[in-house]
Each structure stands twice: as C-alpha cells, then as structure tokens.
Amino acid sequence: MEYSFASENFAPVHPVIMEALIAANKYHDYSYGADQISKKTKTLLREQFGQRIDVYFTYNGIGANNFGLSVLTQPCSVVLCADVSHLYVDESTAPETFTGCRLYPVLTNHGKIMLEELEKTARRFHSIHNPIPAVVTITQPTEYGTIYTVEEIREIARFCRKNEMYLHMDGARYFNAAAALHVPLGYFTYNTGVDVLTLGGTKNGMMFGEVVVFFSTKGKEWRKYQLKRAMQMSSKTRYIAAQFEAMITNELWRKIAGHANSMALIFESEIRNKSNLVVTHPVETNAVFLNMDEEMYQRLNEVVPFYKWGHQTGEVRFMFSHDINEREIHQFIYKMS
Q1: Class of the domain covering 252-336
Q2: What is the pTM of this model?
Q3: Domain 14-250: which CATH class?
Q4: What is the pLDDT of residue 322?
C-alpha cells in the first residue's frame, strides 16, 4: 500500500534511523549493553532526563511496560490504569500474567484519568480480601492523543505519594506530546513525580526498541535481573541504542513527531471544513478520532486502511506517521465525498 492511517506501525523506518542501523552494523562490539553506542546513548538520555536516572533498552512496548511495572510491584498488588489504556485494553493478559498483579480501570475524560475517579477507585481496596494498590499508570499522550499537563501529572503523583504508590508513565508516543507543546524531552517527568517512564521509539520512526527510564530508586538492586526475566535483555543492544542516539541527536524526534502532529491538525481542519463528520476528542498530537457510519468505513477502509475504534459507537481512529504528507490527506478527503 502507498500509505495508511491505521497506525505508525504500518509506516517504514525513518531514513535517518535506517542509516544509524547500517552504521552500527559495520563492526564488532561488546554485547548486552557494554558497547560504545549504548554507553553514549545512556549519556544522551541522562542529559535529557537527569543525571540520576537508570536506563534500560528493551525490544517492544509491552515488554517495556511489563518490565517497568514488575520492578514496582509484588504479585499481590493492583495497578490502577485508564479504562482505555493500551495496558488494559490491548496487551491481552501479558501484564497480569507477568507481574502477577491485578489491572483495575479508572474512568477517564478524553483518555485522561480524572483525579476524583482515581481517589474513588483506590478506596475500593481496603482489606486483606483485596490486592494492595501499588502503582498508578498513565499514558502520555493518552490513547486518544490528548496530553496530560505537568500540573495534572503532579496531582496524580501527589496522590501516589500520599497513598504510598508509584507513578508509571507509558510513553509509547511520548515524543509527540513533547513536540506538541514545544518543550524539552524531560518536561513531563523532571520534578513531576514520575517514577518510571516507558519511552517509545517504534511509533516515532524506529524499526524496533523502547527505553525504560527509572527515576525512583525502587528495586534498583534487582532491575537487571527483572530485565532478563522479562525476556527483554538484548544481546545486540547497540541496534536499539543506535536508533535512540539518532533520535535524540539534533532533536530528530521533534522533527518526526512535530510533522506527524501537524498532519493530524491539517486532517482535522479538512474534516471540519469539508464533511459533516464529528471529531470526538481534542486533536493534540498525531491522532484524530471521528464518528463514521459503517458503510463509509467499509468503503474507505478498502482504499486506505484505518482502524475502527468503537465497535458499538461507530468511532474510528486515524493515526499520522512521519511519512504522511498533505497530498495524501487531500486525496483521502476527496475520496470521502
């Protein structure tokens, strides 16, 4: 297919990232993260997120989330998450199987956990008959592409501290959130109270790979063992690290994510001007959600793939990647008529 709006996973690897992979493939180097690229990339990440962080490279987002959460929890714990979160809806039983924890959903507004709902949900767990609340996990940006403000993150972090819980951030599209607000990469984590960040690369033009960033000292002594147990310890770590090195150098991440965000805004504008379709959530990053009838969905999806999101509501999702351009957006809008 020429292009799609289904997911950034459909998109090819960004050319600069591919060049970095090729460059890393021209020589021998030490394995399991002892190579020079991994060391350099960790230094770059510390410059962005703080010198005291602990950094681990992983293969994929589910594995990264499982690894990060397993360090913060015990098998008798409960992880409170957004009712629409990827962790809860789209990671099957992997988090519960691996961590041994219960996932419990919290009601959201446009994908964001509401503090009052979080407080109400946490009160459900109060006796030996219930698991122990250990972690709140939020997604930045959310499954609907909306962004938590720094103050919203701090409010949730304060709730966590008050209730002896940890705060995990699933940042599968974290680059898009930072690019949307034109802020430094560490903006949503530095001094906000986030304990662990899963920093996604695959959705932003990488071939594979994520980073788990620990701000808390919780579980420091057994993290490397949990990484191995989670089957996320790469023998050729330099191929993941090389992609993140390229992503951070000269803020390539900002160019890639900023472009994807801008394409979503153009698409939203075109939809509002040239159709009677309803945009269902604020467009803040690279996602646009619409209500669409079944006939239109079936007709258009055969031309350019995109996902049906709400099977009962008729809501559909359009995602914009680094290689989508305005011409393709205009072509699609034309086909809608």
Answers
A1: alpha beta
A2: 0.96
A3: alpha beta
A4: 97
